[in-house]
Structures
1.
Amino acid sequence: MGTAAEIIFRPMQISDVEAVAEMDEICFEEDGWDEDFFLEELRDEHSDYIVGEIEGKIIACAGIKIYLDEAEGMTIAVLPEFQGRGVGKKILTEIIKIAKMRGAKSMIFEVRVSNVPALHIYQKFGFKIVGRIKRYYVTGEDALTMCAKLEDLKCKLPSEK
Ligand SMILES: CC(C)(COP(=O)(O)OP(=O)(O)OC[C@H]1O[C@@H](n2cnc3c(N)ncnc32)[C@H](O)[C@@H]1OP(=O)(O)O)[C@@H](O)C(=O)NCCC(=O)NCCS
């Protein structure tokens, strides 16, 4: 199987939904979304979802929902066997670029307090913790709300370089 350098990012399509829902279940367990959720999201004009593919296999996905000038991070996931190779940083960069292109000025994510990799990657990009939601998850765990102004983030569109 190829390396993270060979990853291709493209918009998620209806034909990807089965693979993406399977990946979501692996990556998020009880918090994972099912096929119906992703089908609904693909129909929503406010949503944008992308997948990362290596040699035709979907190994990552990310999605946002944009209302007015705020993008809400809906999901970001990398299959466990591909984690820790820079794919998460790449797909987060891609989805931030899409948010910027669609006119978002800020972006928020909710993250489990125990999700060290996700907290690390968001903080590395410049997201700040702006709130804590008690018992946000079905397991009773709290969520941290992380927010960033997109112009401050450490990734730029090609036209901004
Ligand atoms: C969060 C996630 C998308 C990161 O993807 P990834 O491909 O492993 O991330 P990267 O390889 O690009 O690494 C990003 C940074 O996180 C760090 N990191 C990765 N895994 C880590 C871990 N288990 N503990 C601490 N840091 C970790 C990397 O070292 C890297 O930091 P660096 O650039 O300073 O070295 C991935 O762990 C995942 O899919 N998790 C399950 C789903 C999930 O929780 N999504 C987030 C929901 S808010």
2.
Amino acid sequence: MRLFSCGKCDQVLFFENSTCMNCQQRVGYSVETADLVALPPEDAEGDAGIELVLPGGRQRYDEAVQRHYEQGPPQNGAESYISAYATMHPWEDWAETWAHYLHMVDTLETAKSHGLTVRVPGKGAAAHV
Ligand SMILES: [Zn+2]
């Protein structure tokens, strides 16, 4: 298990911590730095639980949902996102990407269970998926 530390008081923190129990600093997991980072004080409508700090910064989820359904996805969204829904908010981008990855793994496992083999050009023996 990886341990983290509070950037304010050096208290040992776990991934599950959303607040330092020693100094009450709010923390979130930064995907960019792979570390727990200090967050600004929670606003009145803040969510409880682990907060992911993704590249692109923080966006209020409820505002992102409203914007997405009012304005739709950005016109160039297909160039950078796996789905239109993934353009809505970094959390949905993360979830949609993992969902697609898991679907691909499921497909390969199903194919393997039915004996599917893949021949790689230039290789003598068949490679099994
Ligand atoms: Zn602390």
